[in-house]
Amino acid sequence: MNENNQLILKHILESPAPKDTSLFWTAANPDQEIFDKLQDGYNACMNESLLASIGSKPLLDLLLQLDNIYPTEKSKKNKDDNSLTKAIEFLMSIGVGGPVSIDVGADDKDPDTNVISVGAPYSFGLPSKQYYERAEIVDSYKETIGSVLEALLKEAKPDALLFMSDNHDMTVLSKDLVDSLVALEKSMANVAPDPEDAADVTKYYNPRTLKETEAYNSEISVKEILDTFASGYTPSKIIVGSPDYLKALEKILKSSSRKTIKTYLVWKVVQSWAGAVEDPAVQPLLRFRNKLRGQAPDVKQERWRTCVSSVGNDLGKSHLTT
Description:
The protein is an alpha+beta fold. The chain is built from 15 helices and six strands. The strands form two sheets. Strands 1-2-6-5 form a four-stranded mixed β-sheet. The protein has a two-stranded antiparallel sheet with strand order 3-4. A hairpin with a 2-residue loop joins strand 1 (about 100-105) and strand 2 (about 110-120). Helix 6 (about 135-155) crosses helix 7 and helix 7 packs across helix 13 (about 260-275). The two termini are about 15 Å apart.
């Protein structure tokens, strides 16, 4: 069924707009405008030669924004440093997951209302915590991180992203930094709930007040994040998926260097958006993902499939489900 739907959507997006009206289509606004927008998005995604000429610039632009929001050196003027919270807000605004997940969805005990939930992310880098115990996978993962970040470091503007470089060569990524990044991911994964617990409503349904939620982790302010995305709103309750995870995360972040945390945030952006750029720098990550799936390293799905999914996700799936 999914295969048939994909082919139907491909045919629709590659065909002219219908000229005749019907029960499901009128040639007047907004139908025509919606169709034009979907088709423009699809055609832009299919323009691989243009994307290749743009290269990694859109990804580097995001990393430079993050660099400004979360400087390598902690501000001496601001004693109450909230830059990590601001960095997580930035990641959320561009659809990137961080060390904590904040979401809105139906209340399991009152489905007619929505509720805010706070908890551990679905994954931290590798698909599950068990992968961090497999030396072969971890070594390959570190090699992938090193190859991708070093390539981006060389492509970045002068003096940008230098916190990732080796002290002796500003274009070579620090191996110690990669080791500390993966160690940070592993430590967070180890204290996160197991998948069966994360999916068990009797364990993840922990209603708390905003004040109680805020008290679990002094390094990340849930209150500030809510103020940014829903100014003036104070929830009557928040579902905390794992209070123990939030408390353990606080200790992990406090014991980690700022440079390691920053590299982790950078890597989250790269992992999330690598598939959206056409650049040799990110190819090692795509090959590593294929390896985890049991596929040939350089296998690549047909471009139109990527673009049908991209249009559905970026421009509203509701337009592509009929």
